[in-house]
Design brief:
Blueprint: E1 2-7, H1 15-29, E2 33-42, H2 49-57, E3 60-64, E4 69-73, E5 76-88, E6 94-99, E7 110-118, E8 121-129, H3 137-153, E9 159-165, H4 176-180, E10 185-188, H5 189-192, E11 215-221, E12 230-236, E13 252-257
Parallel strand pairs: 1-2, 8-9
Antiparallel strand pairs: 1-13, 2-5, 3-5, 4-5, 6-7, 7-8, 9-11, 10-11, 12-13
Helix pairs in contact: 1-2
Length: 274
Amino acid sequence: MRLVTLNTWKGDGDYRRRLRLIAADLARLAPDVVCLQESLRTADGRLDTAGYLARRLGYECAWAPARYKRRLIEGRSWSCHSGLAMLARGAIARQGRIALPSHPRDPERLAQWIDIVAQGRRWRFVNLHLTHLRKADAIRAEQLDTLLAHLHRNGSPDLVWLCGDFNAAPEDAAMRVLKDRADWGIADAYTAAGGRPPGNTHPAGAAGSDGRRIDRVLVLTRNGARAPHFGQASIVLNTPGTDGVYPSDHAGVLIETNPRPRGLSNSNRPLTGI
């Protein structure tokens, strides 16, 4: 199974150019599941990050609209959402959303989830984007605690993939809630898979200590469930085009497990060309 998480930076910068770069990189990486944050969709549907990628690359798409307002995109004002989206190669069996605590200056924070059934097993993937506010570790901790409690109470499988933009590095105070949960065992997939440190994802193109590792993939287990066998982990979507434009202001994270479950990848819908 190959999984990618990426904050797509709404409609900022050279949006259409960036979108083509994202599509080209995803075609090359061929992930089974993609988690997108700040996924743009205008009110009239003319600009739609997740929809475009799903059509071009042959994915099912689950969309969670949020944070509706007017934004300036390529010199024009648009009414639009900056939401969450998940793309899946296999059929999405179920999907839902989880409202998270929010601050008045940063409303409508949420998480979304999808279930995919493969090899007789239910795979749960969760996508989130925690608050970007500075000095808001307490809010981020509350958002994580709300999410983990919801997953514990509401019939989640005993293995859950948690992906997204945490707006906090692993050592930040907000992340302590992950260590304090008694109901879930939590592992950082990038570290467990041997990803090269430091694994920084923001800003895109940052090297060494110039960036932060705020985009992550975690594996949650309980009731004796075994974590998957990790194949590799790498920072992706982090190379500019020939004109110097990066796919996003964040880099993406790729996690691969072995073996690749049959049914999670749908061979009847191959990647299309870009």
